[in-house]
Amino acid sequence: MATSTVEDYLKTILLAEGERGGLVNMGRIAEALGVAPGTVTAMVKTLAQSNLVDYEPYSGVQLTDAGRRLALHVLRRHRLVELFLVQVLGMSWSEVHREAEELEHAVSDRLIERLDEILGFPSVDPHGDPIPDAEGVLAQPQLASLGVCARGERVKVRRVSDQGESFLGRLDELGLVLGSTVTLIARDEAADTVVLENAAGQRVQLGLRAAGKIWVERPVGEPASR
Ligand SMILES: [Zn+2]
Description:
The protein is an alpha+beta fold and about 230 residues long.
């Protein structure tokens, strides 16, 4: 079994590759893992020797098929654990990412398949991130950023791309939670803000940068009157 450090590297590279694939810059890995660039280079060379990544000096790194399989497996464990912590243990979506960072390395395959079954074979985690299936297939839902929505648009919150506790806690306060319907009331480009109406009918204001981290399904029903 791979060490937790190996698993963290592979998962980080997978998330950095994103939908486009291609080489991941070493600096990006260093930043994501909070380690020195020299440490990353040494570790990546080890991963390349184990045939988990292809390493091209001065340009970057890319997962091999074996590396990708392992990374998807770690991501599956992480996201299923997060959902379990929220749905079964009643924890908040803002506190589970940190817990899952530890648990993703500790749970057995048997336990994970059992969790999957108990949770009803879910397709997304508490942040709306897709959960790779047992075969390692990762769906990519087509969603729009709330930051690009137009005035009057009614949309449903489906995913958030910032799992920081403070960001998610703020969304809780504003009533902008996963699955809720929101209407974009106004955009103020000069002030870099949007005004939204949350599911409870309250008007809340959000910075455009924060709105850009909320991913929505659009449109929901008829546009609200302007
Ligand atoms: Zn997470």
